[in-house]
Amino acid sequence: IITVNAMLFPTSVANSLIAVGTDGLQERDRMVRAAVAIICELALKNPEVVAKRGGLSTILKSVIDCQLSRINEALITTVLHLLNHPCTRQYVRVDVELEQILAPFTDFHYRHNADTAEGQLKEDRESRFLSSRMAIVAAFRSWSGIINLCKVGNSGIQSLIGLLCIPNMEVRVSTETAPNICMKN
């Protein structure tokens, strides 16, 4: 359907794909990656349908869920592609969407899933730090990512730099090791 005419893509199917992409990991649904991949492709061909249904938030939530660098980069690149073009930029909420990738670093009480057990909280935080680092690196590889994360005012890069002054060692150690991840990529 997307290949033939993405403008005729049924909203009911888009709603279903976004629901699977948003809550599928918690439900252990095996169609999560396929649903998110279709949402990404639809976002490139018909961004209005995806944006109005909350699909961009689903994509960015999937970025924080994914520790595989190629998939993580493909997901964030979809949003960066929309930000790069003036006709599609309107669908990305300015101070909300892209800053979601910074949440594991900038929110001390960040929990990706409210159902995460206390015993697994440390492992979950470490995997979110890794996913967030990969997404930040991918964002800084494009002009649209640099411009959006470094904009004047309350920007994402200012928040990350501000973290280095905070006495919370767990976040500081994760932030200070980010250059090592950048060098590997």
TrEMBL record:
<protein>
    <recommendedName>
        <fullName>Rapamycin-insensitive companion of mTOR N-terminal domain-containing protein</fullName>
    </recommendedName>
</protein>
<dbReference type="InterPro" id="IPR028267">
    <property type="entry name" value="Pianissimo_N"/>
</dbReference>
<dbReference type="Pfam" id="PF14664">
    <property type="entry name" value="RICTOR_N"/>
</dbReference>
<dbReference type="InterPro" id="IPR028268">
    <property type="entry name" value="Pianissimo_fam"/>
</dbReference>
<feature type="domain" description="Rapamycin-insensitive companion of mTOR N-terminal">
    <location>
        <begin position="1"/>
        <end position="179"/>
    </location>
</feature>
